[in-house]
Amino acid sequence: MQRQRKVATPATTQGETMRPARPRREYVAAVRYPDGRRDLFHIRNADDLDDARQLVISEVGDVLSVDIAARH
């Protein structure tokens, strides 16, 4: 005779049920360079608009303008 398996229970931390992580918000950045070129970036690892702006500026360097919007 085969034994029954235990029913899986949710993981717990110190007696509390762990909640699933809230999905991070995505952002879109429109960048204009000093020479007139332009580019679009999709930012997934930013905490907020300011963080998204800093990520873009640190990645591309010298820019004329950066517009950031939350992606829906």
Outline of this structure?
By secondary structure, this protein is α+β, with helices and mostly antiparallel strands.
Largest sheet: 3 strands, antiparallel
Mean pLDDT over the residues: 84
Distance between the termini: 54 Å
Low-confidence stretches: none
Please outline the helices and strands:
Elements: E1 12-13, E2 16-17, E3 27-32, E4 38-43, H1 49-60, E5 65-70
Antiparallel strand pairs: 1-2, 3-4, 3-5
List keywords for this structure.
5 strands, single chain, 72 residues, 17% helix, 31% strand, alpha+beta
Description:
With 72 residues, this protein is an alpha+beta fold. The chain is 17% helix and 31% strand. The chain has one helix at residues 49-60; strands at residues 12-13, 16-17, 27-32, 38-43, 65-70. The longest helix is centred in the C-terminal third of the chain and has 12 residues, at 49-60.
